[in-house]
Amino acid sequence: MLTVYSDAHLAHAPGHEMHRGVRVEAFERPERALNVLKAVERARLGEIVPPADFGEAPIRAVHADRYVDFLKMAWSRWTGLGHQDDAFPTVWPLRTLRHDIEPENFSAALGLYAMDAGTPLTAGSWGAAYAGAQSALTALDAVLDGRPAAFSLSRPPGHHAGADFMGGYCFLNNAAIAAQAWRDRGAARVAILDVDYHHGNGTQSIFYDRPDVLYVSLHGDPLTEYPFYLGHADETGSGAGAGCNFNLPLPAGASADRWFAELERASAAIRAFAPDALVVSLGVDTAATDPIAHFNLGLADFARLGDRLAALRLPSVIVMEGGYDIPAIGDHVAAALSGWR
Ligand code: SP5
Ligand code: ZN
């Protein structure tokens, strides 16, 4: 399995995130990707290459121009106000408030483009997110060249980022960017399977009314789990996309057996869709040892997951999402990727 990796993520090194009104140490840290890289090397999974540069067009094919423009300028605007610490929103345009006008006030604009105060915007956020999107596109390129699968090892993650907002540690939706680019480069139907503990609200929303991209997700029930406001079983797609969204929420604390039973349902939905291509949003925060999530997968379960994914026998781009048991994240990811050997 080819792995695409760039050190650009190191520049996105948040110190803290906001949780229940207090600053807590950031969970989404550079060591995550460094440990995955080490494990991929140790497991001799194959070649590790840097991303090529496909420019902004494939990013703007998914994300709104004004959001991308904002992200690119955000850090210089924030530091221009005299700040040195990471930027967090404190005000949001909730129901009845306008989304169509971008306020000139930076904090107000940040609130327009952010779904939570848990996503620190740092000096390196744009550069890291950009490199992550390019990594996903480079992995896609390798698969279009004939490899069965390729892995985009990037951070920050992407699946909570919508067309015009960040959140849940995510800025650019790498899985959606890869799926859209695959469509634009000839795939008629693309399936996205999201196995991160959290529902990929951004990915769902980007493709919700489209019949050409199936979104299937296995996740903690949003009644109690982040992102809370999307990911219920009754969200099945709208308009031309009706039937092309499949959510499998599970209660926090669900067993590995229960999780694999739902994975079979997810796999059946993917087979029924008969896609040309598969994008996997690979989060390993489903581990029993994850500090912020509540499923119960162990190391052998990640290997089993990899076997199930490879058994779909679809050209696959695997994109890194969450996973916060930092000492174990590398082994969990390497175990999942070993399914393709
Ligand atoms: C990509 C991804 O996995 N994003 C997850 C975003 C979760 N954000 C909410 C984090 C809540 C942290 N709770 C800390 C509890 C410590 N006991
Ligand atoms: Zn997650």
Description:
The chain has 341 residues and is of the alpha/beta class. The chain has ten helices and ten strands. It has an eight-stranded parallel β-sheet, sandwiched between helices. A two-stranded antiparallel ribbon has the order 2-3. Helix 3 (65-80) packs antiparallel against helix 4 (106-112). It is globular.
Strand-helix topology:
Layout: E1 2-5, E2 16-19, E3 22-25, H1 30-42, E4 48-49, H2 57-60, H3 65-80, H4 106-112, H5 125-144, E5 149-153, H6 174-184, E6 190-194, H7 201-207, E7 213-220, E8 245-250, H8 256-273, E9 277-282, H9 299-310, E10 316-320, H10 326-337
Parallel strand pairs: 1-4, 1-5, 5-10, 6-7, 6-9, 7-8, 9-10
Antiparallel strand pairs: 2-3
Helix pairs in contact: 1-10, 3-4, 5-6, 9-10
The structure holds N-[3-({4-[(3-aminopropyl)amino]butyl}amino)propyl]acetamide (SP5) and zinc ion (ZN).
Low-confidence blocks of residues: none
Number of helices: 10
Helix-strand string: EEEHEHHHHEHEHEEHEHEH
Shape: globular
What descriptive keywords fit this protein?
341 residues, alpha/beta, binds zinc ion, two-stranded antiparallel ribbon, binds N-[3-({4-[(3-aminopropyl)amino]butyl}amino)propyl]acetamide, eight-stranded parallel sheet
